[in-house]
Every structure is written in structure tokens, then in C-alpha cells.
Write the C-alpha cells for this entry.
Amino acid sequence: MRISLIGQAAFGEAVLRALTGAGEQVVAVSSVPGTPERPDPLWAAAQAAGLPLFPTGDLKKPDVLARYSATEPDLCVMAFVTHILPESVLFAPKHGSIQYHPSLLPRHRGRSAINWAIRMGDATTGVTIFWVDRGIDTGPVLLQREVPIGPDDTVGSLYFDRLFPMGVEMIVESVRLVREGRAPRVAQDESQATYEPPADDSNSGITWSRPAQEVYDLVRGSNPQPGAHCILYDTKVRIFDCTLTRFDDPEQTGGTLRTGAGEFPAGPGSILAADDERIDIALLGGVLHARRLQRDGGKKLAAGDFAREMGIEVGDSFEDAR
């Protein structure tokens, strides 16, 4: 069976190597080129293997599409695709196209599925390989597997530790099932469907008065991208690596501030302590221990370096995102 692979980045490269390692016949690869200094990993791997190579963004051009179609794939495999592709690319192969999606479809359709699974407090997520149709992540399911979301997982840890390797294995298995004529087509249950927008600054702002777990889930569900943000000293700040201490009483704030003038209740967002390892921030029902932060225009810094850069003082407060 002749396979075209459309994808990018480390995941796309891993899928190419896994498919060829399994003896599958890859006849065309479409990816983003990157730059001469830093080519996309899939692009570079396909180029090194001497495979017919097409820029994904150019597949809408008639001459590029004609050369791509001349490779005559029987199945198109989509591994991390961010472009809108012509229907002639998706449906021309004899077996159509299959696609990787990092959620348990129909839950969390959309391109930020991992972010929203964590942000919404899901206990599990997974990988779905589905048959592409004309909707957004709506096609019949070919293969699906579940994984737990740990209480301290981030988008990065969940993807790289579980959803990435599982996805590569499932794509290889799915291609085999298609080749053997045993690939299922299970309709998605539309009554269970959710769709969320891309995770970006419009939905990644911290409101410190929200319950501690919600704040923590937002930060974890925005790490490493786009970074949950707030305001400190009139400067936009993003919080990345962190941990949470939870209180038994969900209404209890982060404790008290001790100053030369006495002890004062610490409202949500108040800075309780700062050292080289962490900046402790009061929450409603816990304390957030921020360990890596970034001011607008700056680099991601460890807590101590960030505190020195910003001139942080205990008793000051992070403010809600604007």
C-alpha cells in the first residue's frame, strides 16, 4: 500500500521513521520546510531519505498538487497538520485519509485538545486515530486508547511522555489495519461532542479569586504554550512550572503575611514567600508555588532569578490578567 505522510515537527519525523521501520511504503511526504539553519525535523528526514517532498502550504497550488497526486498514494496519513488542505488531497487516495488527534474524540475537538483536557480537570484523555471527513475532527473512529492525566501533568509532560509515543504506535497499527482491510469506522457520538478554541492569550488569563484547583489547572493547561498570564507591577507575566499545596478548606486563603507591623490575611494573588526555588502565591484553597516565570519581553527564568529581575517583595500581589 502506497502512503503519503503529511505532518511536521518531531512527531511527524517519528511517524515517518516508524512507518518505514515497519516496512510500509511511503511514496510522498508533505511538511513545512523550516529554515536552512533549522529545517523542520520531518522535512529534513524525508529529504535525507530521498522521498518526494512537498511544502504543505503549497498543496493548494495546481502544479504542486499535480506533482503530489502523481505519487498515487493509496492512503494519506496526517500527523500533526496545521494547514487547511484541499479535498483532492484528503479524499483522492483509494482509502482516503486518517488523522492523529490527542483526545478521546468526540471530546475536545480542535487544535488545543491537550490544553483543554487539563484546564477542564479531566481525569483521562487519550489518542484517537480517525477517518478524515469534511468536518473538524468529526470523522469515524478507527482506533482509540485512553491514558490518565496525572494531578501535576502539564501539556508538555502529557504530550511527550504519553500521547506522542502512543500516537506513533497507533498510527503504525492503524496503517496495518487499513492495509489488511480490517480498519473499523465507528461513528462519533455527537451528543458527547465538545469543541474548544485554540489556547491563546484570550483564554489563558489568571483570575486569582478562582478556586485554587482551577488556577492550577489553567497554569498546567497552558504550559509550555501559551503560558497562563497575569499582571505584576503593571507588567504582563506568564507562569509556567509550578506545584500546588491544597488546603482541606476550599475557602481558606493562602495564609497570613508576617511583617514588622504584624500579621495580615493574605488575599488571593498575594506573594507569601520568595526564594531561589519558588515564589509562593496565595490562592483560594491553597498556595501556588511558581518555579519558572517570564515577564513580557523577557526570558523564562527560575523563580529566584525572576524575583530579582522584578524586584519582588513579600506582601506584594499578582493581579488578574487584563
Remarks:
- The first helix runs from residue 9 to 21.
